[in-house]
Amino acid sequence: MKFLLDAHLPPSLRQVFAAAGHDALHTLDLPAQNKTRGGILNQVSVDEKRVVVTKDTYFYYSHLLHARPWKLVLVRTGNLGLKNTRAMFESHLPEIIQALSSCTLVEINQKTVSIIA
């Protein structure tokens, strides 16, 4: 599966996804880097069939109203720090992948993965 990590998440998360066999880009990998606008991220998501991973609720509403981004993982945590954020994704990634096989919107926090749509 292919992912696009938003600017609010640490770029080192790419390694967590790669270690599990997934392709992951961070906004820093895009031409405008962390200044890339939401509409562009949505377009990359649709064009490349990438799951956007973000804390930004803009993408939540855009997905519900316009089916953009293609698929979405909404992170519902405060600032956890790098170690705890990595640990959360390492422990939840198999469940996230499973959920995205049959849905388009998943919400995660430190304890749970919830299918929204």
Give a verbal description of the structure.
- There is one protein chain.
- The chain is 40% helix and 21% strand.
- The protein has a 6-stranded mixed β-sheet with strand order 2-1-3-4-5-6, sandwiched between helices.
- By secondary structure, it is of the alpha/beta class.
- The protein has one domain (2-115).
- The mean pLDDT is 96.
- The radius of gyration is 13 Å and the shape is globular.
SSE topology sketch:
Blueprint: E1 2-5, H1 13-19, E2 23-26, H2 38-48, E3 50-54, H3 57-66, E4 71-75, H4 82-100, E5 105-108, E6 113-115
Parallel strand pairs: 1-2, 1-3, 3-4, 4-5
Antiparallel strand pairs: 5-6
Report helical residue fraction.
Answer: 40-55%
Structural class of the helix and strand makeup? alpha/beta
Beta-strand percent range: 15-25%
Instruction: Count up the domains.
Output: 1
Tell me the radius of gyration. 13 Å
Q: Using DSSP, what is the number of strands? A: 6
* Strand order in the largest sheet: 2-1-3-4-5-6
- What kind of sheet is the major sheet? 6 strands, mixed
**Cα separation of the termini:** 18 Å
Q: Ranges with pLDDT <50 over ≥5 residues?
A: none
Helices, by number, come to 4
Mean of all residue-level pLDDT scores: 96
Shape: globular
Order of helices and strands: EHEHEHEHEE
